[in-house]
Amino acid sequence: MANVRFDTKQEEEIEYHSDKKSLNDFLWAHQPDPSLGYGDNTTGSNLYTVLKKFLNNKKASICGAQVFIAVKRYPDESDVSDIISQLRSNHVMVFIAVDSIPSGGSNSATLYEMSFQTNGYCVFASGRDLDYAFDNMIGQLDNPYQFLAQNFVVSGSGRIETPTFRTPLPPGYEESCSVVITVQNHTLDKLFVSMNYTFASTDGFYDFKFPGYQSFPLYGTAQAESLILNGSVSYKWTIDYHYNSDAPQIIQLRMYSDYYHDFLPLPVF
Q1: Rounded to a whole number, what is the largest CA-CA distance in the chain?
Q2: pLDDT score of 69
Q3: How many other C-beta atoms can be found within 10 angstroms of the C-beta atom of residue 222?
Q4: Alpha-carbon distance 108 to 127, whole Å?
Q5: I need a surface site. Which of 122, 158, 247, 263 has the fewest CB within 10 A?
């Protein structure tokens, strides 16, 4: 486990921890402090410089690591293919919560691309929605094994139907699995009109709908749930979408479990 604050005038060292308590104590003692920042709205984030240090560190293995990033200041880099390649070769998944109202920098597209190419996901939101979205993201640590990662390029209105699938749970076991869907690869705009989905078992006994009285809302560009699923049955995810444009949009589907699942294939890069 490791953590670091970036975009500070005095670059901070990455801190490595051997247990959750050490990490938690350090985070509480080193909370965000605007006075340590650059103090302008033009300087780009040094996120990629810090991330490179983590990827090349000699203190902890990075294979299979999960990286969670909260971003207020955007980077300026337009090409981070070298970092993406290193992340992919080490099975590192990157999850990023991006503030839709930046404090500086110019390029949020590379943030989405980095998460997309590593089977992570990126959410754009602001205010309380950003807080909730990041909380949902961090909550996936309770279900660290990804067993579904699908991406769809869509436009206008239509429907996505996943092939039927099973969770990694043993037959007869039930568990809360994390479910995430994202609807745009940038700050939510007026081209997005609506999205709803049904998550159902093929035996007809389970049927969860979004939106619904049991579901969480869309926070920015992402919606997340914890669904109690059974290892004995198959499921299908059906998504209906509506965009006010024929311009390409990206919908991402992600699922996570507490039961082991091997690394999934990555997108073509």
Answers
A1: 58
A2: 97
A3: 25
A4: 18
A5: 247
Task: Specify the 3-state DSSP secondary structure of 133.
Answer: helix
Burial pattern 226-249, b for ≥16 Cβ within 10 A else e, equals bbebbbebebebebebebeeeeeb
Whether the per-residue pLDDT at 235 is higher than 90: the answer is yes
219 phi and psi, to 5 degrees? -100, 105
Rounded CA separation 194/198 (Å): 14
Residue 119 in contact with residue 65, Cβ under 8 Å? no
Residue 32: its pLDDT value, please? Answer: 85
CA 187 to CA 204: how far, in whole Å?
37
Give the chain's end-to-end CA distance (angstroms, integer).
Answer: 28
pLDDT in tens, 32-47: 888 999 999 999 999 9
Strands 93-99 and 121-125, by their bridges, are parallel
Residue 122 in contact with residue 116, Cβ under 8 Å? yes
With a CB cutoff of 8 Å and minimum separation 6, the contacts of 174 are: 228, 229, 230, 231
- Whether the CA torsion 57, 82, 179, 245 is positive or negative: it is positive
Q: Determine the pLDDT at residue 214.
A: 87
Mean pLDDT for the chain overall: 96
Question: Domains of the chain, with CATH numbers?
Answer: 2-119 (no CATH), 145-257 (2.60.120.380)
Is the separation of the CB atoms in 98 and 111 below 8 Å? yes
Asked if the model's pLDDT at residue 257 lies above 90, the reply is yes
CB neighbour class for 219 (10 Å; exposed up to 12, middle 13-18, buried from 19): buried
